[in-house]
Amino acid sequence: MLDFRNTNTLWASIIAETLQRLGLTTAVICPGSRSAPLTIAFAQNKLIETIPILDERSASFFALGTAKKSGVPTALICTSGTAAANFYPAIIEARESRIPLLILTADRPPELRDCHAGQAIDQIKLYGNYPNWQAELAIPAASIGMLDYVRQTIVYAIERSTFPTPGPVHLNIPLRDPLVPISDIAVEALETQFDIADFFAGLEPFFAAETSTPPSPPLLRGGERSAVESIVAAETSTPPSPPLLRGGERSAVESIVAAETSTPPSPPLLRGGERSAVESIVAAETSTPPSPPLLRGGERSAIEQWQKCSRGIIIAGVAQPEDAEKYCSAIGKISQLLNWPVLAEGLSPLRNRAQLNPHLISTYDLILRNRELAEKLTPEIAIQIGDLPTSKELRNWLEKTQPKRYIIDPSHHNLDPLHGPTIHLRTSIENLATLLTLVPPLTKGGLGGVQTSATTNNISPQIPPLTKGNSPHVPPLTKGGLGGVQTSATTNNISPQIPPLTKGNSPHAPPLTKGGLGGVLISPSHEYIQLWHNTETQIRLTIDQKFSSTNNIIEPKVSWLLSQILPPGTPIFISNSMPVRDVEFFWKPNNLEIKPFFNRGANGIDGTLSTALGVAHRNQSSILLTGDLTLLHDTNGFLIKNKFVGHLTIILINNNGGGIFEMLPVAKFDPPFEEFFATPQDINFAQLCATYGVEHEIIDDWEQFKEKLSFLANNGIRVLELQTNRRTDAKWRQDNLSKFAKGSQSGL
User: Measuring CA to CA, which residue among 564, 593, 713, 709 is closest to residue 648?
Assistant: First the structure.
């Protein structure tokens, strides 16, 4: 409800009410005087969860975590002055990792700036170019016109936090006294003339769009979704009337159709809700098949080149998809249609849904350390999905071999740090998987080897005539699978070369036999993918044997073990520096549907604990995997404990310093290495945890570790500390990574 006690309370309550009606559910608030009207307004709105957090940096990363988990913007509120400056690291991360945040910074009014009034800094464009959009609101005024202005500005701010690419939006809000809800008769009188229902009539809540790859397409508002659903519901008995075309439009459409004489037409890029609606309408068409949608030229050209190539790879980088199942299924479909391997980053959901992709390669970093094998595996084409993986070996290999690279990501960001021969297809991987089924495989006999019409060439064995229930561009699902082709019972992924997975098969690669993959004879064109499979199997077996026989506590074994023992579906936040690299090296493909989270936008260690708490808040019991310095950098995150709802187990690898620096050339130069790079802190974490009232336990052996993780509590925070030696761990990696790579020699 609106607060008419004075101008500031009314202004602030309209901001809060507008956001609540748009679907915002969480606001993180830091204490302060200038922001009092905002704090009071949000605290009074019972449909928004308001969480007070003392430390602004911690608060901002907690908000980042909640938005990362939900995909919906979180509001972040603070007072004027340097309080707002403490938000900066999280805003940078939100921008780089494409997470929606709405930052509301209270400020002094213009007359109290640049005059040493106290707690006043220049907050205009405080965050540089990192926000998607930023503005300063007008000084609050209690007039209908100005209230309309602030409402619509908030609507636009939410839109810009999600479209065209999710990210932070900053609104600076100057406020004059009184900052507390002292009554103003003139404003109170306005309430009798104010129609709240009419004022907010145009607002609809935002819903997450049907997508799964970061960044998300724009959110559909309720009105749009309602309209589309009404259209779909009406299309159940009679064919829909075609839209009315103006002369110029009809002429343009007819010209396009006439020009389509050699290749099957292709679909436009549709957002999830739109695609669902359109496919429902098409399915209702029972009289004449409509023309299929049009593929853009670059997409058709790319797909045709991929189909001709037998030495292609798919690189699946870090990803936090909203729908991991759809994301992984789409990549699996593309991989099997092209018969290309998928090099999957440890932070990709692919490694935790291995059954969806029989061409999954998880040891690519180790494989590429074998220089002779790396040369034999030189690809002609690489499809990069999202950001590149962490692996420096992979990046160096791509720079050396220079394959033609296609980057698949719907954002406007430049995702090519290698600056190679690259084409950016700005679409989602799910949409690309659909488009791929539109272009028949190129064979000697023509399109898909099927005779085509001399006049239209539009016949495709993959695209049957439209009948009731069929889509013009998606083959009908039959008992056997897509278009009558046998498919996996769980994924409907086409793969005539890959047999269905059975109980005895590997979750990520069919059994290797003398005849090839899964007993199927491999043609020369399939030798490339078989070499990837053989090497993956050998290295994975060597890793498993090595860790199974390692009984002492070493850091690298933690990631390998976690990938096998965590409860299904567990969210895990993986910190930067050494943990994220061990995950890439050793995280074993599984079918546990574990949900990885991370802050890889800026690759920093800022706010790791707070972000993990934000992810775990009101979520499934969660895990944080971190080193000692990263945890110490954000111990104020423990102050969130009393407001935190849920459970977080912190797996603390305490090697008393920065273990990642031991892996770098600078480690050979001591001094100054130990003091200025490794920076040991000699902290007793049991005492630190006791200060914050956090449960703590030291883990002495692997059986104890497995027992503690077999069951996760429903609430509270606990720390499981594994004490390791960073020099010993670094030497173990240097010795064994090299041995694993040499072990792949037999794959030649």
Answer: 713
Residue 123 near residue 178, CB atoms below 8 Å: no
Q: CA-to-CA distance for 617 and 573, rounded, in angstroms?
A: 13
Angle between helices 555-565 and 726-743 (to 10 degrees): 70
Helix (H, G, I), strand (E, B) or coil at 241: coil
The set of residues, in sequence order, having a beta carbon less than 8 Å from that of 731 and lying 6+ positions away, is none
DSSP secondary structure of 193-229: G--HHHHTTT---EE--S--SSSPPPPEEHHHHHHHH
Helix (H, G, I), strand (E, B) or coil at 720: strand
Contacts 24+ apart (CB under 8 A), 238-246: 239/284, 239/285, 239/286, 239/287, 240/281, 240/284, 240/285
pLDDT digits (tens, 9 = 90+) for 541-598: 999 999 999 999 999 999 999 999 999 999 999 999 999 999 999 999 999 999 999 9
Give the three-state DSSP class for 388: coil
Which amino acid, one-letter code, is at 120? Answer: A
CA 221 to chain centre: 21
427's CB contacts (< 8 A; 6+ apart) are: 269, 299, 408, 410, 435
Question: Structure tokens of 315?
Answer: 């690189």
DSSP assignment of 111-142, as one string?
GGSSS--SS----TTTTTT-SSEEEEPPPP--
CA distances from 733 to 397, 452, 637, 700, 740 (A): 20, 57, 31, 21, 10
Token digits of residue 590: 């599984």
pLDDT tens track for 52-102: 999 999 999 999 999 999 999 999 999 999 999 999 999 999 999 999 999
According to DSSP, the β-strands at 571-574 and 516-517 are unpaired
Residue 343 three-state SS: strand
Is residue 3 within 8 A of residue 181, CB to CB? The reply is: yes
Indicate the pTM of the whole model. Answer: 0.80
- Rg of the chain over all Cα atoms, to the nearest angstrom: 28
Indicate if the pLDDT at residue 446 is higher than 70. no
Name the DSSP class of 494.
Answer: B
Q: Can you tell me whether residue 630 is helix, strand or coil?
A: helix
Cβ 276 vs Cβ 209: under 8 Å: no
Give me the count of residues in the chain. 748
Residue with the two structure tokens 């409907």:
492
